[in-house]
Amino acid sequence: MNWRNLGAYADCFLSLGDTGGQPGSLINFSATVLMARNKKISKRNNGGSDMRKKMFFFQFESPPLIWDRRQESKSKSTPNLLITKKEGLELYEDMVLGRAFEDKCAKMYYDRKMLGFVHLYNGQEAVSTGFIRLLKQQDSIVCTYRDHVQALSKGVSARAVMSELLGKATGCSRGQGGSMHIFSRKHNMLGRFAFIGEGIPIATGAAFTSKYKREVLKEADCGHVSLAFFGDGTCNNGQFYECLNMAALWKLPIVFVVENNLWAIGMSHLRATSVPQIYKKGPAFGMPGVHVDGMDVLKVREVAKEAIGRARRGEGPTLVECETYRFRGHSLADPDKLRDPAEKAHYAARDPITALKKYLIENSLANEADLKAIDKR
Ligand SMILES: Cc1ncc(C[n+]2csc(CCOP(=O)(O)OP(=O)(O)O)c2C)c(N)n1
Ligand SMILES: [Mg+2]
Question: Domain named Dehydrogenase E1 component: which ranges (predicted)?
């Protein structure tokens, strides 16, 4: 590789990804709901899933590249807690802040105080918190238009994000970006992109910059990693594949975090994607592919630790697919009439904040009063 020539590209950046603990459970659940709801759709999905089963049979899979969380959890007796009290409360606070911020946005939007397109993150908080709270300030992230909560997790103040949403000059993008373009140089938030897939090459470029500075320019303190967040719908976009290839080829310090919430606006992931298990696409490019339960912040954090550590050690990229769900419509302008109420109820019962609360209380890491105090802040 000619590092000197490639250095010309070193000012670009990219990131994405996430995984889960029960590969395919979300997909199977949704297929069942769709089948039960509509005979016509049922036929199509049923046929599709039979076909997919056949295709998987012929697929090459490299076992060491896929971390199967189900097998790991079976083999582990888990005598130790996954987090300390301090960590647990920090995670809880971060998730509650994200949820409260988004609820406030919804209220302001429906009161006509906030204008334009606004895409909320309710339900997906475990992904942002699980990954971003492990990062250092130097590490960079790139997101899509569903971006407010990741900014908060990275340390941008709620005031700066809210001011941005209201178009004020005190906003983190000087009021010129709005909801879909949250940016903060100080926090290495390299931007949010309304065109899906656009952020992935940016995050990849950031990872390249880090490697170039460390290996060619010999800047000892340059070991930052880059995270690219994007959705399931974005994985059908060409830039995703091009960047997986470059990142694996050059062993870039990046984690591709896919937030698979099963829908791309009103298009079901199953109807749009030939191989819906996104994590399986990592090994095709020579990088680990991990699936994680994106409604469980502790599982996300465990996978994130491994993937970020791998990137930081110079061992290359990881593709992580997080199974998650958005609790609101695609944007606040979406009446959300397409998704089946049974599907919504299923995921509402798996609220990541309620789940963490339960874990903290059951393991005596917090009591109701501790958590209520955080809720009130
Ligand atoms: C290049 C491009 N094509 C199409 C669109 C229109 N579009 C906006 S959001 C969206 C769906 C994206 O779904 P997903 O990646 O799953 O993200 P989610 O909204 O579920 O977080 C599409 C197709 C776009 N913004 N950019
Ligand atoms: Mg989606």
Answer: 94-376
